[in-house]
Design goal:
Elements: H1 35-43, H2 45-49, H3 58-86, H4 96-100, H5 102-134, H6 142-152, H7 154-170, H8 179-207, H9 212-232
């Protein structure tokens, strides 16, 4: 079990000052993918972000961003199957080989995850920093904002990966996964997406000097409304 780490003070800035950088690229420490830390991001995110784990290590960040990209593709695949099940006559938008071959599905997810993960790191990470700014932080560090974003996203990145790995062992192809399990996976995706919002909110409160009510609006309420609208379409 990792040793307890000293408390990290929230990132603060004075007038005209550049905020200090936490979790530098050269930092050493326990991997954030240690089982204890992975459990923390789900059940105690404040402790996860208040740790000496090597959160800023480039390889760790790249892996988290890649997992985010990979899981985003898996979520699209789950959504496509769900749409085909709930709306009869709707044709799948997935390439036929993805439905009939696990190798094809994993090739698309793994390769596409690199591109999607890089895109999300740049664009979604920037928007995350803007929300930190709107929450009351003064000149929040962009890299630190991206760090919180990709690690908080592990809450929704890991479950579809685990579920799809189980399906790979149980069924001959993705198209053979029963409708009932697609429903369960879709329901879990909503649950863990909500969990990601809480993790991001706590991470922002832990590492930035923000107003908690504004942060609650930008990191919990606004995304929850967006999810609700998207699901209703």
């Amino acid at each position: 079990m990792p040793p307890k780490s000293p408390k990290i003070a929230p990132q603060k800035s004075t007038k005209g000052a550049v905020t200090p950088e936490l979790f530098p690229p050269t930092s050493h420490g326990i991997s954030p993918y240690h089982p204890r830390h992975l459990l923390d991001i789900f059940v105690e995110p404040g402790h996860f972000f208040n740790t000496e784990a090597a959160l800023g290590k480039p390889l760790n960040l790249m892996f988290a961003a890649w997992l985010l990209g990979l899981s985003s593709i898996l979520y699209v695949a789950i959504g496509d199957r769900l749409l085909g099940i709930t709306k009869k006559g709707v044709q799948s938008n997935l390439p036929p080989e993805v439905l009939t071959s696990w190798l094809s599905l994993w090739s698309v997810a793994i390769g596409g995850g690199i591109v999607v993960g890089a895109f999300l790191w740049v664009l979604a990470g920037w928007w995350f920093r803007e929300r930190v700014l709107l929450s009351g932080a003064r000149r929040p560090n962009l890299r630190l904002s991206r760090i919180v974003y990709v690690y908080a996203s592990l809450v929704r990145s890991l479950p579809p990966l685990v579920i799809t790995l189980i399906w790979t062992l149980r069924y001959p192809s993705y198209g053979a996964v029963p409708a009932q399990e697609i429903y369960i996976a879709a329901a879990l995706s909503i649950v863990f997406s909500c969990g990601e919002l809480i993790s991001a909110y706590i991470g922002v409160k832990t590492l930035f000097a923000v107003d908690r009510w504004k942060a609650g609006i930008w990191f919990v309420l606004a995304p929850a409304v967006w999810y609700t609208v998207a699901l209703s379409l």
